[in-house]
Design goal:
Blueprint: E1 4-13, E2 17-20, H1 21-26, E3 69-71, E4 74-85, H2 88-94, E5 98-112, E6 133-134, E7 143-151
Parallel strand pairs: 2-6
Antiparallel strand pairs: 1-4, 2-3, 4-5, 5-7
Length: 152
């Protein structure tokens, strides 16, 4: 529009499922190591008979539960940029062909119901052949940039 340019890119995925293995590891009741605070609501016959999670046991078996299979649907504003070109009447006085100012951002917004850090979870234990298992993938970082271009 006039001397402004606006570009944006949305990315998404619909209908896929993600097994949140990291959450399962943090909520397993068969360990003596640190776990998630949600396990404070674990079953106990005396103090918490209506607990949401099973009682803590000292056993090596961890059962896979479908509780940790989540909807992986998401839509992400992957890139957006806004730029302004100075009008010709100004740049001709400065003796240049073009002056452009720009602002951009990457991974600005993500809309999802997935409780993990990144709904783009695509590997299990460094293995890209096992997609849809999230063992703590890094979240996408947000990047903001500002700049200008001068063409002589």
């Amino acid at each position: 529009y006039k001397d402004f340019d606006l570009n944006f890119l949305f990315q998404g995925s619909f209908g896929n499922k993600i097994f949140n293995l990291l959450q399962q590891q943090l909520e397993k009741t068969t360990t003596t190591s640190n776990v998630s605070s949600v396990l404070l609501d674990r079953w106990d016959a005396v103090t918490n008979p209506n607990g949401k999670f099973p009682k803590v046991v000292n056993a090596p078996v961890v059962q896979v539960q479908d509780t940790y299979i989540e909807d992986g649907t998401y839509i992400r504003l992957k890139n957006i940029s806004l730029s302004y070109n100075l009008p010709n009447r100004i740049i001709t006085r400065l003796g240049v062909k073009q002056i452009k100012f720009n602002l951009s951002a990457q991974n600005l917004l993500t809309f999802t119901s997935y409780t993990g850090t990144n709904p783009e979870a695509n590997f299990y234990d460094q293995n890209n052949l096992q997609p849809g298992i999230d063992l703590g993938v890094y979240p996408n970082y947000k990047t903001y940039q500002a700049g200008f271009t001068v063409i002589f």
